[in-house]
Amino acid sequence: MIGACTDEVQIHKSALRYYSEGNEALKHRDYQIAIWNYQKAISLDSETPNFHYNLGLTYYEIGNYSESIDSFKRVESLVPNHYNLALAHHKMSNSRLADIYFNRYQDMLSLRKAQERLEAVRKEQETEAKIAEADSKRKELKKSSPSTSKKTSLKKKSKPGISEVPNWE
What is the pTM of this model? Predict the structure, then answer.
């Protein structure tokens, strides 16, 4: 079992190495080398969205929009990203599909914003609940502490033979 884990780790490391080399080739605009490296990375690890995404970007850069769409669809199946599909379809003059994916992208952004607002409201409610809880505890302490403080103030002992006269100066 341990051997299988280390094999998977080695495979993933090899895939990352190909991915890294693909990134370097892409930076230098050596698109064929980039494509080859990304494809090798994907052959070793087909579940990492970045491998497919960068392959799609490379195809997009060289104008091979149909291949970029295939790569972006794979990314979408792993992690939804409709924007790149919309761009590639637009470049291929598939305005209907470009509109569909762009609308999905807009919906995804709206959903993400709504989730962020919901999370902010939840955090605010949690904070308000903690403040209310702290206030109620403080009130409970005030209710119990005044009676004990009166008793202690009445029990003050004065020193024998010395009268306590207020100093009016």
Answer: 0.50
